[in-house]
Design goal:
single chain; mainly beta; four-stranded antiparallel beta sheet; globular
């Protein structure tokens, strides 16, 4: 059973963990009071204890999400109707999912050691990694029409896969965590345990590594913002950071203590939105660094990933809440 994702400590075990449900519930009692945002709606996932991890907009106008414990890929319409598709490999532990350049959805199977592809009609194809135990993790669209992913299984590698299924692996100096396509045509990735952010060319050459000012901040998810800078979350540092392609880092403190910011995305309103795993909130930060937080109605739901939907709202997964959430922009 996959009961843990996105660790809170700087040295994650092979199967990283976030705080157990009881711990989260106790923490919430100590946090500042905040009324739930009236603009949040929640939809129950049919499979119990499915541990929904990531969500992404699909080419069909719906949202697609992974069920890490349910071993399924889910689809939810903007009106809240959910369908689920079982993955052929048992206990595959799907985590990250993204819409590919070929009109299908691509996802990682950290337990199955495979990259999966699902069409909008639900047909699944799986591509095994060449080396056993690689634990593929994050996956994103990259330059050249390929998909890029990190490997957590002891190897210091970043991989790419073409839409035809050709796999390539690139050794990197330090362990990669999450990655994103940069505004400069390179791949940028976080190094959780070494507290750095690195830049790699599509040829696999690491050209720069930048140390995060906050020690042991556990840099997490990284994306390109609307200002053409890199933005990333600091899971243990409780901060949102901005990194220019020249290497200048600015950090912004999240108001809720011990919030554990996780995923971050660009919203339809031109701001950046992020999840707070332990804070049980969805956060919004402007390009100037002003932060607003919205409390998720379900207690201790551990919101995991938030993404912009085709309806102009933000959609997010509730890892322990076993729900998909929707929040409208201001």
């Amino acid at each position: 059973m996959l009961t843990s994702i996105k660790p809170m400590h700087p040295s994650p075990p092979k199967q990283p963990c976030i705080p157990p449900l009881a711990w989260l519930a106790a923490l919430l009692l100590t946090l500042p009071a905040q009324a739930p945002a009236q603009s949040i709606a929640e939809y129950d996932i049919p499979t119990k204890s499915s541990l929904p991890f990531s969500v992404t907009p699909g080419p069909d106008g719906a949202l697609w999400f992974t069920e890490a414990h349910g071993n399924k890929i889910g689809r939810i319409t903007t009106s809240g109707a959910i369908a689920e598709y079982p993955i052929p490999t048992p206990d595959s532990k799907p985590v990250w999912i993204v819409a590919g350049p070929d009109g299908a959805l691509w996802f990682t199977e950290t337990g199955g050691n495979k990259i999966g592809r699902i069409t909008t009609s639900g047909a699944i194809t799986e591509f095994p990694l060449p080396t056993p135990g690689r634990d593929p993790w994050d996956i994103v669209n990259g330059p050249g029409g390929a998909l890029w992913f990190t490997e957590h299984g002891g190897s210091l590698k970043i991989g790419s896969i073409t839409t035809a299924g050709k796999l390539t692996e690139y050794p990197v100096p330090l362990a990669p965590w999450d990655l994103g396509a940069g505004p400069d045509g390179a791949i940028w990735y976080t190094e959780w345990t070494s507290n750095k952010v690195a830049r790699m060319t599509t040829a696999g050459v690491v050209t720069n590594q930048y140390t995060v000012p906050t020690p042991s901040s556990a840099p997490n998810v990284i994306i390109t913002g609307p200002d053409l800078s890199l933005w990333f979350t600091e899971y243990a540092g409780d901060k949102i950071a901005r990194l220019t392609t020249a290497g200048v880092i600015t950090e912004y403190v999240v108001p809720t203590p011990n919030s554990q910011p996780g995923n971050i995305t660009v919203g339809p309103d031109g701001a950046l939105w992020f999840t707070e795993h332990a804070g049980n909130r969805i956060g919004r930060i402007t390009l100037a660094g002003a932060i607003t937080e919205y409390l998720v109605p379900t207690p201790a739901s551990a919101p995991m990933v938030v993404e912009s939907g085709p309806d102009g709202a933000l959609w997010f997964t509730e890892y322990y809440g076993n729900k998909i959430g929707r929040i409208t922009t201001p």
